[in-house]
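Marked as duplicate of an earlier ticket. Keeping the data here for the record.
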Amino acid sequence: MLPDPLPGDIERARWKNVPHDLAGRVVSLNQLEHSFPEDGEHGPIVLLEDKEHHSEYGRKRKGTHPYGIHVAYECKACRKITIGSPRIVDDTSLNAPGTPPLCGREGYDVYCGQCNHQFEEHIWAAS
């Protein structure tokens, strides 16, 4: 039997293509581009999303695939570019064992892995 999915699993899936040996490394934009060079399948590093508290970098697949492959983020608080996903914290206290029904919240939060600045808060339910 498969375990129940966690609230942040979809967010985690966006970052699944980062090599494990590079994850968590702080780099300059030039080093990021060197770590993920353009090749026959992928284009160069581009800014995929510019959000309020952070920016996300990645590469687009060449050809007809329109989606970007996320490889790094830049925190607007500490100004560091980090390869890999931000820290994703699941909160499943909504129906945790031993709590009354609809007690707490369910969702996930996204933080900078370097300075712990909160980027996003996603809540599906709260009491």
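See parent ticket for discussion. The longest strand covers residues 42-50.
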